[in-house]
């Protein structure tokens, strides 16, 4: 039975992460981490892929087929599975996660903060403004981990997506924001590992220089996955790509909860 921090850096391309995030690559090249290139499901849109990451199912199964499908998830998902098996949960995330796993539509006042053991996100802090600074989102998530020591915590910063949609992926603003996230992670990851967490860092989708995502270009579809165990042992960079559908069963396995039958893809090797 383990504890997991899942960091979903919205809009972080695989190549940008590899080239700009030096602390994470240090852990990869010294085999203190395992790194995969993950092929995102389609369409490479945010809300559908939030649901894919949390349910391990493609959009044609979970039904959240576009950003405009605003409803609660109907599939077995990581938060539900954790709470069902007596694990505690937390999330610092964009409000679409509240809509998927607490209630929809989101009430901008009532739903901003949740501390309720009856919900599947038991401690939630949500933001609705895309330019919300990554530093604030990471701090909200780190605070929840510090205060409540949840077994499963999601942290979801929007800075890469916002910079990519404002300046394009081939811009200093986009690339530098990856460095900025790496600096924050370099500060937080040692603390979380010390506290016994396995940390996963990934993205929902990438983005292109057209300042958009949705299609099948590698810039949209290829995203990173770093797996950092508390023991600090990894396999380095794995050549074969992983499927995004493998993320949810991997988290279930790390948490020590049963993998629902709907998550049909195998868990990843750490
Ligand atoms: Zn997104």
Explain the overall architecture.
- The protein has 270 residues and is of the alpha/beta class.
- The protein has helices spanning 14-20, 22-29, 46-55, 59-62, 78-84, 95-101, 134-148, 159-167, 172-194, 218-221, 247-255; strands spanning 3-8, 34-39, 89-94, 113-115, 123-127, 152-155, 197-202, 222-228, 236-237, 242-243.
- The protein contains 11 helices and 10 strands.
- Strands 1, 2, 3, 4, 5, 6, 7, 8, 9 and 10 form a 10-stranded mixed β-sheet that branches.
- A hairpin with a 7-residue loop joins strand 4 and strand 5.
- Residues 10-11, 46, 161, 204-205 line the site of zinc ion (ZN).
Topology:
Blueprint: E1 3-8, H1 14-20, H2 22-29, E2 34-39, H3 46-55, H4 59-62, H5 78-84, E3 89-94, H6 95-101, E4 113-115, E5 123-127, H7 134-148, E6 152-155, H8 159-167, H9 172-194, E7 197-202, H10 218-221, E8 222-228, E9 236-237, E10 242-243, H11 247-255
Parallel strand pairs: 1-6, 1-7, 2-9, 2-10, 3-5, 3-6
Antiparallel strand pairs: 2-8, 4-5, 7-8
Helix pairs in contact: 7-9, 8-9
The structure holds zinc ion (ZN).
Zinc ion binds next to loops.
Give me some keywords for this one.
17% strand; 270 residues; Alkaline Phosphatase, subunit A; 10-stranded mixed β-sheet; binds zinc ion; single chain; alpha/beta; 10 strands
Provide a quick synopsis of the model.
This protein is of the alpha/beta class and 270 residues long. It contains eleven helices and ten strands.
**CATH class category:** Alpha Beta
Total strand segments: 10
| Largest β sheet strand count, sense and barrel closure | 10 strands, mixed
Mean pLDDT: 98
Q: Do you know the CATH architecture?
A: 3-Layer(aba) Sandwich
Note the run of SSEs as H and E.
EHHEHHHEHEEHEHHEHEEEH
How far apart lie the N and C ends? 15 Å
Structural class: alpha/beta
Residue stretches low in confidence (pLDDT < 50, at least 5 long) are none
Number of domains: 1
CATH superfamily: Alkaline Phosphatase, subunit A
Strand content: 15-25%
**What general outline do the C-alpha atoms trace?**
globular
CATH fold description? Alkaline Phosphatase, subunit A
């Amino acid at each position: 039975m383990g504890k997991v921090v899942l960091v979903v850096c919205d809009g972080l391309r695989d190549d940008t992460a590899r080239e700009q995030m030096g602390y994470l690559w240090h852990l990869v090249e010294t085999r203190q981490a395992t790194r995969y290139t993950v092929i995102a499901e389609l369409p490479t849109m945010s809300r559908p892929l939030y649901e894919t990451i949390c349910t391990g199912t493609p959009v044609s199964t979970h039904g959240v087929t576009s950003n405009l499908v605003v409803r609660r998830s109907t599939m077995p998902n990581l938060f539900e599975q954790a709470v069902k098996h007596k694990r505690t949960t937390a999330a610092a995330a964009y409000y679409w996660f509240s809509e998927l796993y607490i209630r929809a539509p989101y009430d901008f006042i009532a739903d901003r903060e949740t501390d309720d053991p009856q919900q599947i996100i038991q401690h939630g802090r949500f933001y609705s403004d895309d330019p919300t600074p990554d530093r604030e989102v990471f701090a909200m998530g780190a605070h929840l981990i510090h205060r409540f020591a949840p077994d499963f915590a999601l942290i979801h910063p929007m800075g890469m997506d916002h910079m990519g949609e404002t300046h394009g992926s081939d811009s200093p603003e986009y690339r530098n924001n990856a460095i900025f996230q790496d600096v924050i992670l370099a500060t937080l990851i040692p603390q979380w590992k010390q506290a016994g967490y396995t940390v996963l860092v990934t993205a929902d989708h990438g983005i292109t220089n057209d300042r958009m995502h949705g299609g099948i270009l590698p810039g949209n579809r290829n995203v990173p996955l770093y797996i950092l165990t508390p023991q600090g042992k990894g396999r380095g960079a794995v050549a074969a790509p992983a499927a995004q559908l493998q993320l949810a069963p991997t988290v279930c396995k790390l948490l020590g909860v049963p993998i629902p039958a709907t998550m049909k893809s195998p868990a990843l090797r750490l």
